[in-house]
Each structure stands twice: as C-alpha cells, then as structure tokens.
Amino acid sequence: MISSNRNAASQWPSGRAGRPPAVGVHRHVTANPEALTPTSAPLEGPDIGVQDSSGPVEAAAPVIDQPKPPTRIDKIELTIDSLQNYELLKPIRVVVESLGDKVFVAEAPDLNVSTTGNSVGGALILLKDHISTVYEGYTSKKNLDGERTRQFKVFDAYIGRPRRNWM
Question: Which domain holds residue 9?
Fold first, then answer.
C-alpha cells in the first residue's frame, strides 16, 4: 500500500521515503474527454499514483458536463376566444414574444395590433383591452379613411355584437 503526501516523494508503509523499486510496467493515464463511461472495476497494479522516471503520472480527472440551461421560449402562439364586451365570431390568433426577462409583446397579426406588458398574461390582457378599444373607436366614427376602413372590416370578421351585461 502506498500513501502520498502530495509531494514528489512517496511514503512507503515502512516509513521509508523515496522512490519505490520498479515493479512491472508503469501505466501512464491521460484524461480523455470522449471516454466518459464510468467503470465499476478498480484499477489494478501497485504502480498507480507513483512517479516514474519519465515524469508524474496523470490521473484521469472526471469530466462532468454541465447541464445546458433550458432553452427559453421566445414566441408563444395563443388564441383569444372571448372579449369582455363583445362576442367573437372566430378566435383571434395571438403571438406573444419575449424581448428580455420582463418585457413581452403580444400581437394579433390578423388585426395588425400589438401591446407590451411585464408578463405573458399581462401583455395578453392589455391586447384584449386594446382590441376592444380600437373596435369601439371604429364603430363610433362615421367617416374612416381607406386604411382604417380596411382594418375595421377585418375586425368585423372576428368581433360580433356587443354582449349584454347582466348583473
């Protein structure tokens, strides 16, 4: 049995310091990052951990792969299936995109409207309110220009009659 005090000289059980006598063939172990298969069999031989004349023996250091952080989802596709004051004729497709940790953009591409919020849910709620507000603005005006008339027709394809508010 050989013990080491992490110096160049090894200590033999008899207390004698110095280099052990050469026994058999010395092994030279190198770290191979591609050979990551653990083994259950112990390494054999009295020469493990002992220096030979060619230099120090390198022990294979275990290579631990750090787990990759989960990929953050940058876009989420949702649908709005109800508005607070209006009935919907068909669901409105929504894309929520992350612009960092605390800024989210919710967009209804078919309606050409978008809002930002501090969370996915917050951006979605603000978008629903914005859709209702824009639609109410279109219905209250008599003379809309060409682009607003086109957008109002798109809104009409999704939004139906106002809901009755029963207590």
Answer: 1-61
Residue 158 forms part of a structural domain:
yes
Q: Give me 30's structure tokens.
A: 């190198």
Binned at pLDDT 50, 70 and 90, residue 27 comes out as: very low
- Between CA 90 and CA 93 the distance in angstroms is 9
Mark whether 52 and 84 lie in a shared domain. Answer: no
Residue 7 is inside which H or E element, if any?
A: none
The answer to whether residue 91 sits within a structural domain is yes
Same domain, 82 and 149: yes
* Domain-embedded: residue 167: no
DSSP SS3 for 113: strand
Question: How far, in Å, are 43, 107, 115, 132 from residue 88 at the CA level?
Answer: 72, 17, 20, 11
- pLDDT one-digit tens code per residue, 76-90: 899 999 998 899 999
Residues contacting residue 126 through CB under 8 Å, at least 6 positions apart: 106, 115, 116, 117
pTM of the model: 0.55
- Total domain count for the chain? 2
Residue range 131-159: mean pLDDT, rounded: 91
CA–CA distance from 128 to each of 70, 108, 109 (Å)? 30, 9, 13
